[in-house]
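Changelog entry: the Alpha/beta hydrolase fold-3 domain-containing protein record was regenerated in this release. Current contents:
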Amino acid sequence: MVQWAGGRPVFLAGDSCGAGLSVGLAICCRNEGLRPPTGLILFSPWLDVTMTNPGIPALTKLGPMLAPAGFVAAGQDWAGGRSVTDPLVSPLRDTLEKLPPITIHQGGHDILLPDAEKFAAKARAAGTHVDLRVWPTAIHVFAGAGRTPEARQALRDAADRIRRSARD
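Regenerated structure tokens:
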């Protein structure tokens, strides 16, 4: 699965469902005793496909491009034969112990913010290092809008995190 590439660190990164998939892969590495990635860099991560966090409805007015019901349906499809509460589908449901350091870039106007905050708190309580950066007025997957100042800064921060790791 995840291996060192020419002696260099390996990071897993993604946005939205790809970020959740990155966490799921790190969980698999931990569970199977494989070498973990050096770190995770998550942009607007989708961490619980059940979308049951009570903080979500208040944010739907701020991020109108996303509807919780659509996420629930997509989450059921994503789960396939697994339960939607399986930690490989909804990483927030994992213990979050013994995971590599995690950096999260999250929009403050994103309906996934409440789960990102809950995930960060739970991971920290489990002993996992988490750096949660909330961009107050940013929307879902704001880092993909590369021309905005927030996106450029989030991507620079991610690149700096990787460079620091390569020097360590």
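The first strand starts at residue 11 and ends at 15.
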